[in-house]
Design a protein that fits this description.
The protein is built from ten helices and 15 strands. By secondary structure, the chain is an alpha/beta fold. The strands form four sheets. The chain has a seven-stranded parallel beta sheet with strand order 6-5-4-9-12-14-15, sandwiched between helices. Strand 7 and strand 8 form a beta hairpin. Helix 1 packs across helix 3, helix 2 crosses helix 3 and helix 8 runs parallel beside helix 9. The longest helix is centred in the N-terminal third of the chain and has 13 residues.
């Protein structure tokens, strides 16, 4: 017995899929199990009621709480296809000669990888994965914020990082997050990064939130800012049209890829 009622064989397989991959989409589960999308929705609802998974638009993700933060290596594999599409689109709006900020997180890292053929960029970042492993064109200037390194997360935080970010005004600031509540705004699971993220919202002529659809309709431990402080959101089409329309009331320039 798990939760209020026993899981059937299909639901157990779906739970195993979610726990292994970190997330699952209704469409893919429908194909894999040969049942209707409506049936999969009921299965995911059952897993959610049992406290075994967390429902998101278009599917479900492994269960988390508002104070739980996945380790960096685990984040790298979650919603990978969606993050790559988001990164590709984000890079496509960067022009040669731009100055940009790239936040911590896996999506920002994938954006950096997409920018390796761009020229004459000025890139400011607190993301050590980008600093250590992405090879940009020789015409690109890479500026590292400095600060305190968060163990296991490859990110620089603290007052030094915040002071450096505040000293810049970039063309485009790409920021990630851990959770988005349509009414209450953008949240992060770790309050130590909130100060840095709040500085990011002020350092760009345009602030662009890059986040996969699993982050929507959730809250986390610490609020970063209101949605109205964001100029553009790039997310994946798992968000769904109805939710996108609601988000666009606050951020009209919301792109689904």
């Amino acid at each position: 017995m798990e939760g209020n009622r026993p899981l059937n064989a299909r639901q157990r397989k779906i739970l195993d899929w979610i726990n292994e991959k970190g997330s699952a989409q209704i469409r893919e589960l429908s194909v894999v199990h040969g049942v209707s999308e409506a049936t999969i929705r009921r299965d995911l609802d059952e897993l959610t009621r049992a406290g075994l998974a967390e429902r998101v638009h278009g599917g479900a993700v492994r269960m988390t709480g508002t104070t739980f933060e996945r380790v960096h290596s685990e984040k790298m594999s979650l919603m990978l296809a969606e993050k790559l599409r988001i990164a590709s689109y984000a890079a496509s709006i960067v022009e040669n000669g731009d100055s940009i900020f790239l936040d911590s997180g896996t999506t920002a890292y994938f954006i950096a990888q997409e920018l390796t053929r761009h020229k004459n960029l000025t890139i400011l970042t607190n993301n050590l994965d980008i600093v250590q492993s992405v090879q940009f064109d020789l015409t690109v200037s890479l500026i590292v914020t400095g600060g305190i390194r968060r163990e296991q997360y490859s990110v620089l935080i603290g007052s030094i990082a915040e002071q450096v970010i505040q000293a810049f005004c970039v063309d485009k600031a790409f920021m990630g997050c851990d959770a988005i509540d349509i009414k209450q705004g953008i949240f992060n699971t770790n309050f130590l990064e909130v100060g840095v993220k709040q500085c990011i919202t002020r350092c760009g002529k345009k602030t662009i939130l890059v986040t996969d659809s699993s982050k929507f309709q959730h809250k986390a431990l610490a609020k970063v800012c209101d949605l109205q402080q964001i100029d553009m959101i790039i997310t994946d089409n798992g968000l769904g049209n109805a939710a996108a329309q609601e988000i666009r009331k606050s951020v009209p320039n919301t792109i689904l890829v």
